[in-house]
Specification:
By secondary structure, the protein is α/β, with parallel strands linked by helices. Helix content is 34%, strand content 26%. It is built from eleven helices and 14 strands.
């Protein structure tokens, strides 16, 4: 290590990469070695003045980096980048395409074992902290039912889908939990809820001059895989209003499990975990940094292969010793 700190590299410098850069400032046991980008490094201007290198230079700096935090997107980047970099670096990623996580795990596990590294995949809040809480709740209340609600917050993927509609200049989409459904779950009635019953979608859309707004509205509400299964509201606003009122990236949500105990299941319990985030990428980045510390600790023990948040002991996330944690938190 360098100056008794964990040496970190950032791969990719979008919203998530900037969030990791900021999170490292709050973790004095870590130091940022550099940011690696596919762009021209001269066009990248880090918030902290950190060094920027072309992505191709990362391998030559292998011995200077203890953990590489991958900040690319799940749709196209991480399925390739995570196995590639796991062959040479301890890594952490935030891969969040739930249906493909088993496949991603297998690919990264093989690469990390071949390279003798630790690779933490799918760290964040869902998958991530929400996953842990679903595990805890199900283990403690085996007789019960899980519920996950997302929002209120901005969905980056759905916002991108809006911007791809012809005639749309810019847009933001909010995912909103249906309060009546949330309260029904909290009541302990264990309802069976459809997709439409759990969430609604609110779209703020800026159109090109002269665009047919009614055609755009119909195309949005009928869009399969994004909006057709939800009650969707489309509001047309100006670019100035969008920039002024919707420039943040809030998000959050709830994990709940309604369960019973007793001889006949007569005793009811509700497990609930919630997040309310002013900035989805900054919070997700903070989770990645904590798991980078865990990756470093596991690698120092000689462990190799892929890990998920379900595998890693909570104490590995903290800079404090186990003795301190026992004394202060138990």
């Amino acid at each position: 290590m360098q100056n008794n700190t964990i040496r970190v590299g950032i791969l990719g410098y979008g919203n998530l990469g900037r969030g990791v850069e900021l999170a490292l400032l709050q973790n004095p046991d870590m130091t940022l070695i550099g940011i690696f980008t596919r762009r021209n490094p001269d066009t990248v201007h880090p918030l902290t003045g950190a060094a920027v290198y072309p992505m191709e230079q990362a391998l030559s700096m292998k011995e200077e980096i203890d953990v590489m935090i991958l900040c690319g997107g799940s749709a196209t980047d991480l399925m390739e980048q995570s196995p590639e970099f796991a062959r040479n670096f301890n890594i952490v990623d935030s891969f969040d395409t739930h249906a493909r996580i088993p496949e991603h795990y297998r690919n990264v596990n093989q690469a990390a074992n071949e390279g003798g590294t630790i690779a933490v995949i799918s760290a964040g809040w869902d998958p991530g902290l929400f996953s842990i809480n679903r595990l805890y709740a199900g283990a403690v209340l085996p007789s019960g039912q899980d519920y996950t609600f997302w929002g209120p917050g901005i969905s980056q993927g759905h916002s991108d889908a809006l911007r791809r509609v012809a005639g749309v200049r810019d847009a933001k989409q909010y995912t909103l939990p249906v309060e009546e459904a949330l309260e029904e779950v909290r009541s302990g009635s264990n309802p069976s809820l459809s997709t439409r019953q759990k969430h609604t979608r609110l779209c703020f859309v800026v159109t090109e001059d002269g665009a047919d707004q009614e055609r755009i509205r119909e195309e949005i509400v009928g869009m399969p895989n994004y909006f057709s299964d939800y009650d969707t509201t489309v509001e047309f606003i100006s670019q100035e209003e969008l920039d002024r009122d919707h420039r943040g990236m809030p998000h959050g949500g709830f994990v709940l499990r309604s369960g019973t105990t007793g001889l006949k299941g007569e005793t009811r319990h509700l497990y609930e975990f919630s997040l309310k985030l002013d900035s989805n990428p900054e919070f997700t980045s903070s989770v990645l940094v904590a798991y980078a510390r865990a990756a470093f600790k596991l690698a120092a023990e000689g462990q190799t292969g892929a890990r998920t948040v379900l595998d890693i002991p909570p104490s590995a996330l903290s800079p404090r010793s186990l003795e301190e944690l026992i004394g202060e938190l138990l």
